[in-house]
Write a structure and sequence with these properties.
There is one protein chain. The chain has 186 residues and is mainly alpha-helical. The longest helix is centred in the first third of the chain and has 23 residues.
């Protein structure tokens, strides 16, 4: 608690000491427990320290019931969980996984691999999926309609049936990609 008092008094040496004291331990803990990269753990620790400093300087930490390390790691835990959520929304999927959420659009698909992607093959792929699949995926991914609106538009009896139809269409896409002569990565 002495360290906190010094930081609140504006002692820069105490702040540097706090940073050095927990930085490496926090990085190791983050990588081990939250499967993040080292550079991500370093960035999160920077944010944690800044939050702690601001809270200390603005007297938002009056009666700290835990030690400073516990406080820092608790802030870090929440930031790491938010990072995991953020990364899960933007992570890449291999061709064997189903594409979920709004990660791709049919009009602007970017595919990578060791060789440059052949645009002709993409056009062939889009022309070969059934029109109803193309329409449901276009409404969902391009126009960003909800499933209830899609069901109404396409005359599908229920939202669950529309979800099932979208799922089946994505399975067809996955099967087509697996059967193609190239390995594609979304």
């Amino acid at each position: 608690m002495e360290l906190l008092t010094k930081i609140q008094a504006g002692n820069k040496t105490a702040f540097t000491e706090l940073y050095s004291l927990y930085r490496n331990e926090f990085i190791v803990w983050s990588v081990r427990n939250y499967s993040c990269r080292t550079d991500e753990a370093k960035d999160v620790f920077q944010e944690v320290i800044i939050d702690f400093y601001n809270n200390a300087k603005n007297n938002k930490i009056q009666n700290l019931t835990a030690d400073i390390k516990t406080y820092l790691f608790a802030i870090g835990k929440h930031k790491l969980l938010n990072l995991i959520k953020k990364n899960s929304k933007t992570s890449n999927f291999s061709n064997s996984e189903l594409i979920n959420d709004k990660l791709i659009t049919l009009n602007n698909i970017e595919l990578e691999h060791k060789k440059e992607f052949d645009k002709e093959q993409l056009n062939n792929f889009l022309c070969n999926i059934p029109a109803d699949c193309k329409r449901i995926l276009e409404l969902y991914y391009v126009k960003e309609w909800d499933m209830e609106s899609i069901a109404k538009e396409l005359g599908i009896s229920s939202t669950n049936t529309a979800k099932k139809k979208k799922f089946d269409c994505l399975k067809k896409i996955t099967k087509f990609i697996k059967q193609s002569s190239r390995i594609l990565v979304f």
